[in-house]
Amino acid sequence: MDIAKCSKARPQWRGEYVAPRSKPDYVSWYVLRRYVLPHVFGLDFNELPPTGTLDKTHLEHFRAEVAALSRSGKLKTHGVFFFYPVKEEYLLSLKGAEWLPERPQLQQVANEYGIKIIDIAQAKEWNETLYRDDGVHPSVQGYIVLSGILTKAVKESIGK
User: Fold this and answer.
1) Is residue 79 pLDDT above 90, yes or no?
2) Is it the case that residue 84 has pLDDT exceeding 50?
3) pLDDT tens across 9-38, in order?
4) What is the CA radius of gyration of the chain?
5) Which of 46, 115, 120, 158 could be stapled to 110 by a disulfide with Cβ–Cβ 3.0 to 4.6 Å?
6) DSSP labels for the chain?
7) The whole model's pTM is what?
């Protein structure tokens, strides 16, 4: 099934090359655009979320995606935003610093569409020992703790 046909109101899926919505017609073209061109020519076809300072265009695109998702459900809470800091950001949060500068804009979108926010940095179960050595990914124990936090949040959001 091609997800793009489900809703004409939805903006174009920005993660097409990272997580395609349908089976590629030509695998070699997909591999060329996903892996070869970015490496050889420095072309950035990576459509993961943008990083760096908040761009108004990205914020509006994000708001449009959230609006489309919230219209698709009939639940009181339309979803959950999970904010996951890397270890360096987590350690900043322990000192009282804001690790997510875009929080006010994301909070506004969450409030607008009835979305609950779970900030892993604020979860009492989470600590700095739950990261792998790379400071980004959770350790095995970290995944166990993270899954508990996320499962609880999802269950609460759907009323179970």
Assistant:
1) no
2) yes
3) 444 555 555 555 666 566 666 676 666 766
4) 18
5) 115
6) --GGGT-TTSPPPTTTTTS-SS--S-HHHHHIIIIIHHHHH------SPP-SS--HHHHHHHHHHHHHHHHH---SS-EEEEE---HHHHHHHHTT--S-TTHHHHHHHHHHHTEEEEEGGG-TT--GGGB-TTSSSB-HHHHHHHHHHHHHHHHHHHT-
7) 0.64
